[in-house]
Queue: 4 jobs
Job 1
Amino acid sequence: MSSHPSLPSRATQADPGGAPVSALPGVGPSLVETLARLGLERWQDLWFHLPLRYEDRTQITPIRELRVGESAQVLAVVDAVERSFRYRPQLRVALSDDSQATLVVRFFHFSNTQAAQFEPGTRFVCYGEVRHGAQGLEMVHPTYRRLAGDAAVITDDRLTPIYPTTEGLGQKRLSSVIARALERLPGDDVLELVPEYLRAPLHLCSLREALLTAHRPPAGASVRELLAGRHPAQQRLAFEELLAQHLSLKRLRARVRHHRAPALDGDGALRAALIARLPFVLTRAQRRVIAEIADDLAKPAAMLRLVQGDVGSGKTIVAALAALIAIEAGYQVALVAPTELLAEQHYHHFCAWFTPLGIEPIWLAGKLTGRKREAALAAMAAGAPLVIGTHALLQEDVVFVRLGLAIIDEQHRFGVHQRLMLSEKGRVGDQVPHQLVLTATPIPRTLAMTAYADLDVSAIDELPPGRTPVQTVAVSNARRGEVIQRIRSACAEGRQAYWVCTLIEESEQLQAQAAQVIFAELQTELRDLCVGFVHGRMKPADKQTAMDAFKTHQTHVLVATTVIEVGVDVPNASVMIIENAERLGLAQLHQLRGRVGRGSAVSSCVLLYQAPLSPLARARLQVMRETTDGFRIAEKDLELRGPGELLGTRQTGQMALRMADLVRDAHWLPTVQRIGAALLHDHPVLAERLVKRWIGGAARYADV
Ligand code: ADP
Ligand code: MG
């Protein structure tokens, strides 16, 4: 890697990129403040503040060819105008064009002058998003302009960039500031940070050209390519952005890796004792992953390992064995789960496994207060070997004396920050605890490479033997009666069923209320069966009672809110009914379905939906029927939803990409890894500048 040609001289032109925005003409203190809210402080922040999308006003679309959900520009004549004040003031304008089709345009905020413009017979050019309205297609608050007499329509000759912005800063003003910054854009000899010898084989267009094109697409540029993000200029920027993301995560990883940790190599006695008592044999995948973990733990450098395994692949026992390695070596272990229900379930499993070994797990959740909490804290401070709980473990007054290993279950609900927080908690001098992260949401490989570049990954890619794939059907709510009948016959055969109620509202209270209604309905419909009920707002003890009753087969059907989404394990349950399945994302559906198919009986999952289905919902239900493979589902999910949602809200901010799209631009990732490695090795200073350029302002999350 040392035979590369030397770099061109960078002294030819000074880099003005670091100049403050206030040095631009017309940018006063109040605008500086507004721009700062967007993380725009230096000229280069403006150069790299790329359009979110473009509006295409280069052509006129006949109304007949409009498509719902797309934005378009139409040229039409006013047929009728109507003002109403029923619930709120409203202006409705019916327009038609040469294609003999009509479009309704609606305004909720308008002045009298505006309303008066829409005289029947006058011509307007309107641009907006097309929606389904009560009377056919409509646009709400389009931008519009009136055409005088029979003046010819002038369409734009280029796309209009739309920038991410903030309150009090309109597109026009922001565009003009960016334009002023772009006038000061230096040449490529200053702009390019990836050295020529690495760049040349990729045949990229120049960075200067890429930036100018992205901000101000020239008249001749392919509109289709630009709208799709596939223009060479956009691809050039996407590549560089992915490279910067990758480098920043690598840097974070290097920093954590740099931390020292206690070398944990116990004698294996506790592990052997637990394995001897298990009612099953570990799968090959489980044994391999445990060996990988043991290898890491034995080293005096901090482990940061992600264990991926599909729902039901048996991650809990892997976590338990990892915990024993640390305990054998005389260190403490903390196990953190995202929900209280899941933490409780772990607590019960670990008690059953560890108590016979002479280890009493400590319980610590947010709801634990008073003396019990004090007792738990005191036990931890006295060096109790294992503590299990929710994120309450991350609170300030929680102190460990010898934390050797932190295990975090269901990683996608925690962010990088929380991971680091737990690691800081256990810091003693220059030593931090090892970290093991378990996730049941398989992360597509492409995403793992960027979002989780700070972690090593182990995969439990094999399910315990004897599992049969869950059969999945989608059934309209109109056929609810048949579904209830299906439950009746399954329970008659000694099986058990979950009925999961979902609501789009985030409120647990509303969820609980809706579930209560269904609970009452099923109690009436299934008189001869025992129906149980569990929801998030119950007292932990009541929750546990309901779960225990289901586990011990006293209840046949368990009505539940999505509290049972993660981790709940009752092997005899073989029917899963998911209410309002059309509202849920693939990851959540997969999690819920994973609650069944854990025993030897053939399991089934009914996705109950309310017609009509949106195209997206239809696509999701189709995926669920086609496959039970978590990795395929995750890839599909990424395709359908995009990475932000897949990683959960906490991750969204971190992965907010400006230009790149992890699905569309996944083809860059191998190149990004290769160039990233070369850059870090040969030009660490340039790598650093590249990260600073792209990951600026609010997104400087990696600088913790
Ligand atoms: P998840 O990976 O979803 O967390 P769990 O750890 O809850 O899965 O395991 C699911 C079920 O499989 C549990 O009932 C567990 O006891 C059982 N199990 C785990 N490993 C094996 C194995 N090697 N053979 C048989 N059953 C296993
Ligand atoms: Mg689990």
Job 2
Amino acid sequence: MSTDVNALNPTDRVSSIKGIGPQKEKSFNDAGINTLEDLVYVFPRSYEDRRTLSDISDMKVGSEVLISGKVVSKRSNMFSRSAPLSLLVQDDSGVCEVVFFNGKFLDKLFDIGTYYTFFGKASKNFDRNQLIHPQFAKTGSKDDVRGIVPVYPSIPGVSQKEIRRIETELKPLYESIEDFIPKSLQENINLASLQYSLENLHFPTDGKKVLSAKYRMVFSELLTLETGLMYMRKGESALKEAVALSCEMGDRFASELSFELTEGQKLAWEDIKNDLESRKKMNRLLQGDVGSGKTVIAEMAMISAASEGYQSVIMAPTELLAKQHLESFKKDFDGYGYRPEILISNMEKKEKKRVVDDLKSGEIKILIATHAVLQENVIFKNLGLVITDEQHRFGVNQRKNLSSKGEAVNVLVMTATPIPRTLAVILYGDLDVSQIRTMPKGRVPIKTGMVNSEDRDRVYAKVREELEKGRQAYVVAPLIGDSERIDANSAESLYKELAKEFGEYSVALVHGSMKQEEKDERMEAFAKGDINILVSTVVIEVGINVPNATVMVIENAERFGLAQLHQLRGRVGRGSDESFCFLITDAENEVAVKRGEIMCQTTDGFEIAEEDLKIRGPGEIFGTRQHGLPQMIFADLSRHGDVLEKALESAKRLIEDDPELKDPDNVALKRRVKSMFGEEIALAL
Ligand code: ADP
Ligand code: MG
């Protein structure tokens, strides 16, 4: 049964384990498990405590029980394959019936007079205690079902018993799996070793040991994460100083605007100005609700940089948004002598080349771009300031690359999504935060109402009223299921309905599975006023600004999260006219109703974010994918804040002492970091 120890290698394919043939191997591969090391890293989801035997007479219907007893009788039908096998099992307290359907081939596994241990859910057959399809083993045998039993994630086609057997065979391999936590650190903070942790997670004997093994796994994941982030930031932190930029020009620009800055904008500008005018490198997050006027702050910073002879760039997540910025920048900077330029993927080759050349020569001072600017051939002459708009749309690596295009670049990141403090620390390190919590004057708060789908006529009447005044409307349909196709269909049917209902107006459809150009084209037409009603899926979520749009209708509102509803609603109410938002829903569940109520009560994004946190719990908000962080198995950022802080501290020290992670004690960690972040971490260096 046992495989030759020397024959196993962590990098071997899973089929090198006895009993894993091509079919099972495929099942493992489909679950992303390819090598023996991958198998070792398949960890129990939970544990069943099967340490205490129950007396048969004490079996409680519906609960999981572990019993041990002697088989006193067997009953099966020798001639029918499908007939059940029925055993009577006896201990000192009583008798229990154990039933296996399709029991014929199990028959020979049980000998009368022999003791077996069973684990399963207790039921009753009339007055008799019963176990149906329990797990079983000969009492005292090495397959005994007693003990703390790990429950593994289910892998189609592979039973729990089999996974447990495989894990047992892999035990000898632990010695050859590299422990990537530096020895000195491990000793310093008294952390369990990898070998100890593997052993106790797969073969638990004691709750405390499992806990310290888990702690080790959580810590090691977070340490890898933080070390990776530090490693990427290393260049920046080594160069704490940045160019000092006088902000006189920004002040002048602000004083010549057609409006006065809001209190919140003034405070945020104060922060930014302090950063820019000192030699301290700016590393600031600017949070402000949709429509709070972050763009003008970016303009003030950028024009200041330009007046000091430095280049600056603002990176937007979509081409449409970039184009929109270009339009307003051009208008706003008119007469100042700084011509903003744009760099996106989708532009004429010749024009792109010119922009790239002019960036290199320093001709262009103010650039608006998408991630196209991240390409290697885009080189700046003297980049002094980098701004990312709608920050949450970008991954960690994209951010790093942009600021590495200059020597001592000031960084401003802007977002409409308030990011919880802890997460901000993870993502941006020692980031400063400014918030704009006031809205520009003259904004009429958006009237929000929750309505039943039967009242749709009333909603349409309001839409018509607004259209007659020359205004425009958005109608948004949700994602249904995971499939883009279904999603498109539902927006499509809505589109058909509305095209009929509003036959005299121009109605257009935009959804996620359309070509980008087609989407942009229609959204631009809407922005120009050529389209009256825009039916869409959530694709309009990001930053589009159409002040003439005054109605937002959200279908199946229950399918959207609060943050999303808030973002969507923020598309209207951008002009001086009163705007309306209708949440159409028939849902009666508590969460959906609560969300609707909050939306009707307030338009303050920070307040909504707080409520959102309460309703959803931190788990979802911390979802690592959403923020471009690598996936982790044990660590949960919403629960492990304290471990995170320790990991952060250790990572800082590690990188300070050994910025390249060259020390022999640290190279394994460096390898681990690379495999966690993928190759991009190499690009960031
Ligand atoms: P966001 O913070 O969502 O990016 P924008 O910067 O797009 O918001 O601003 C939304 C609109 O508000 C723009 O049309 C902008 O010109 C206008 N705006 C910004 N600041 C003010 C202000 N202090 N007073 C009046 N209007 C303002
Ligand atoms: Mg914006």
Job 3
Amino acid sequence: MLRVLVTGGCGFIGSNLVRHLLAHYANVSVVNLDLLTYAGNMASLRDIWEDPRHQFIRGDITDRDLVRRIFAEGIDTVFHLAAETHVDRSIFDATPFVRTNVLGTQVLLDAAREFGVRRFLHVSTDEVYGSLGPTGAFTETTPLAPNSPYAASKAAADLLVRSYVHTFDLPAIITRCSNNYGPYQFPEKFIPLSITHLLEDRPVPLYGDGLQVRDWLHVQDHCAALVRIWEFGKPGEVYNIGGRCEKTNLEVAQFLCRELGKPTSLIRFVADRPGHDRRYAMDISKLERELGWRPTIPFEEGLRQTIRWYQEHQDWVHQVRSGEYQRFYDWQYRDRLATGRSAAAPVETPSA
Ligand code: NAD
Ligand code: DAU
């Protein structure tokens, strides 16, 4: 059995990735290290709680002792996703971004170096490249020019990873992906926020003129790219991942109104995000050419599926909104103590 560490496995992409790994690799067991910040949700993994190949550890990636204990038990590969991820929050307070995204990455890199891993996948973002004009796309050699505190913290982490490859021969790979959408995305992000608002006839806030462009990729395509890179990518390389699917925010909002049968008068132009990047677009030809990956889920189909998912999972949304989702950990833990379920159960605290 290969022991794979996924950091941030209770977040949006992390939960989809844990599910993908367990479904597609019978020889893999997943150690899921997640602090359960506001963005972490155990309910996003409800269907695999009982899977003995999933071990959940609530903990902080900046906790060096804890991280060392986890690595000491043997880790083949790290998929490092844990991060503070919302640009707007980073504008209000950059501190948790620097702490988790930079220091947390360094702690993981140190442990990976000390105990040895076969692969370290550092999951990064197109935002490290900055903003584009109306034409062109980011390649893996585009200079880093992050514009938000979030993007700057991710770029700093990328540079740390690069330095550990160069200095210590750490077999790490950096992936940089464009905007994801799909099930289990926290409803502060644009697409789930718009869907959940429209479902309740509430306005969709569109920043500035709404003509900013994002390159959208379904989260399942992102997960497929990550495992392809894990299996066939070259250590030390950077791989761009994207959807070849550029849309303005206004186009996305209009599409959602149409699909949900809501009037576009619910779209409200509001004050712009400070420093708002105008356009992202990814050149993904390296990943296509070298590893044979390409996006498979057409945007409109993926968005329709995503709308359906939010319609059918109103309980998940309500629990997030009410804050109830943050109590799942206590409920699970208490339940297990009360029923004396085994230590192999997915919810456990690490041994000292
Ligand atoms: P998310 O915000 O949904 O989830 C982040 C997870 O990390 C949460 O479960 C949270 O509890 C956990 N976490 C935060 N701080 C932690 C800490 N100190 N220790 C342990 N766990 C901690 O994020 P996401 O959208 O799923 O993004 C995952 C990764 O992918 C991030 O690294 C992000 O930069 C990158 N990424 C995201 C997108 C996107 O569109 N969402 C695109 C490209 C890259
Ligand atoms: O590009 C990858 C990045 O995509 C990831 O690295 C980030 O973690 C992820 O949060 C996302 O960043 P964005 O800032 O692009 O995503 P967000 O969903 O916040 O916003 C998408 C676009 O929609 C952006 O141009 C801002 C705009 N927006 C967003 C919100 C929340 C609005 O117009 N109104 C809104 O209410």
Job 4
Amino acid sequence: MKQTLAILKPDCLQRNLVGKVIDRIEENGFEISGMKMIKMTKEQAEGFYAVHQGKPFFAELVEFMTESPVVVAALRKENAVQAWRDLMGATNPENAAPGTLRKEYAESIGRNTVHGSDSDANATREIAFFFSESDLILTQKG
Ligand code: CMP
């Protein structure tokens, strides 16, 4: 079993879509090993998205991710990174496949409802960014 980090972004909470997104996570067989609601600070958002520093959308991204609370979750499943990316759909909702979360809910490439890690290495880094080992429940099934 692998893990990935999901973030339910500010636009998701602002439009009361948390329940719908979690429903889809559970329906698709992910195990939630950690979950919390936080209001990201500017420093946290800049650190989390450090890889995008210098890109034209960086300031807009940090501004958006700090405008209101988010839900961060560690998800476990076989091939968790790819499975969560498949459920999210393409970053730009215009390119997202029917039935994906971003096709259904995202407003734009910036306000795109959910985040997911893009590799196992980044998943490990991103989960550790928000959760300590003791926060993570290893299995709900005994
Ligand atoms: P996410 O998966 O959270 O990782 C980086 C984010 O940057 C991405 O989702 C988008 O929301 C955002 N992003 C990428 N490209 C652009 C862009 N051209 N304009 C605004 N935001 C962008």
